[in-house]
Amino acid sequence: MRGIAARRLFAIAFGAALIANAAGAYAGGPKAKFAYVASCGNDTVVQFKVGHKGLLKPNSPATVGAGACPVALATVTLAGKRFLYAANENGDTVSQYQIAANGTLSPLTPPAIDLSSVASGAAYITADPKGAFVYVTDFDKQVVQLKVNADGTLVTNTPATVTASGSSTDVPVADPQGRFLYVTEFGHNTVLQYKIGSDGTLTPNTPASIDSGGNPRNLAITASGKFVYVPNLDDASISEYKMNPDGTLAQNSPATLNLPPTAKPLQVVVNTKGTFAYVTDEKFEVVYQLKINPDGTLAMNSPSSVPIATEADLMTLDGGGKFAYVGDGGSLLYQFKVNRNGTLTPIPNKSNSIGAGMSNAQILLVPGGR
Fold first, then answer.
1. 351 Cβ contact list (under 8 Å, min separation 6)
2. Which residue has the higher pLDDT, 350 or 284?
3. CB contact at 8 A, 194 and 161
4. Per-residue model confidence (pLDDT) at position 30
5. Measured over all CA atoms, what is the biggest interatomic distance in the chain, rounded to whole angstroms?
């Protein structure tokens, strides 16, 4: 079985599962108007409106059909039009939609691109910040390279894939300037480093990878492009890196932030200003609250964590810096206000959850559609 449960089984099999924020490693842009959640269990994308106090309410319709087990989402904007893509893990496809002015999703023609001939799955997806290229990983050795047509549909680039130097490609994230792509590789405990060419194709940087901790997962890059953070699911730690001008990563000092023993950090998210970071822990069911020092190193905020009633899976932040949302990998989405000191407060009260499909995965926020 694949999907959300399978992603965790992959993690366990290698010694230890988005998203994303996966696509969406840092919160950037204006305040969000709409939110979308990949619902693997229902084969749908759940659609929400974002209220002025950060509370989510279902859009109409509340869901739109996707492929088999959507797990990751990405969005691009072209000529004022916004498009959304859902990576369908069990169908080896990527569903493609246009986002209407009211936030609802309309399937494009064709409604999906089939990747079965070039990859063994569609695990995670990200778009370059310029909106011209999209990249998909498959939990194997492939990174699929796609181009965005003028009408928002996707087509494979030439070549269609690059093959990773190791195995088990996981979460791809482009830097804010769209010059480099980083892919966590949980089978070899490394982060792959690529240059993005003007045509969108990837070339391994030199060196092609840098060591991480055990089972690296959903990484984050600050909006400044200066610092990168990688959660290590098996080591209860966060690897801290500085980004060199050539796109290669170098360990910061200290090289890691250690979390409580046996913690299972799944994802790092950073705010737009690069002052605060958050880490979901799927074992202890909390979100760790961190400060980002001027040198890029991490330090615990006070209090150091906020509890999630069921499980802390994937998380995202509103680009306006006021609200945060955490999925539980099941059927609920938790809503928080971001305080000035970076700590999270449940909204509207301690029962701050809303239904969000089944086996929910990545949460994606957008400022609007057309």
1. none
2. 284
3. no
4. 61
5. 51
The residue-averaged pLDDT of 309-321 equals 90
Q: How many domains, in total, are found in the chain?
A: 1
Torsion of CA 356, 361, 366, 370, to 10 degrees: -80
Name, in order, each residue with C-beta under 8 angstroms of 224's C-beta and a sequence gap of 6 or more.
Answer: 176, 274
Which of 167-171, 212-216, 267-271 is least confident?
Answer: 167-171
C-alpha separations of 33 from 66, 86, 87, 176, 242 in Å:
22, 19, 22, 22, 33
Task: Confirm if 312 and 328 have CB atoms less than 8 A apart.
Answer: yes
CA distance 347 to 38: 22
Domain that holds residue 78: 4-366
pTM more than 0.85: yes
Decide if pLDDT at 81 tops 60. yes
So what's the pLDDT on residue 22? 36
**Which amino acid would we find at residue 72?**
A
State the CATH number of the domain containing residue 228. Answer: 2.130.10.10
Residue partners of 340: CB distance under 8 A and separation at least 6: none
Query: In this structure, are residues 230 and 241 in contact, taking their beta carbons and an 8 Å threshold?
Result: yes
